[in-house]
Q: What sequence folds into this?
């Protein structure tokens, strides 16, 4: 099973889900607003992607005050899950960020 972490109304997350399932693999989209990620999962994502995990182009980020942005990344992601760059795709021993040509190639698409 491949897990796609993002938002259910995100076009890019839905596109990743569609392309992965079209390739014959089982995948599920996990909405991080509806089902917040546990601390261990967030720590794993931060260890892998570092600051790239924070989407500074998102509306959520732009609407934040400077003091809200200055908290530790872990606290920021727990308080505002929509600020996570998406999708994060995990499965088959792989973990990718975004749905770029490189991420698609990593998934054999």
A:
């Amino acid at each position: 099973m491949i897990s796609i972490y993002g938002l259910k109304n995100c076009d890019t997350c839905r596109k990743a889900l569609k392309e992965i399932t079209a390739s014959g693999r089982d995948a599920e989209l996990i909405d991080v607003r509806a089902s917040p990620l546990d601390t261990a999962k967030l720590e794993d994502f931060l260890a892998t992607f570092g600051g790239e995990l924070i989407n500074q182009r998102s509306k959520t980020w732009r609407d934040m005050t400077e003091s809200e942005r200055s908290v530790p990344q872990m606290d920021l992601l727990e308080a505002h899950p929509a600020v996570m760059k998406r999708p994060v795709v995990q499965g088959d021993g792989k973990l990718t960020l975004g749905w770029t040509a490189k991420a698609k190639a990593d998934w054999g698409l």
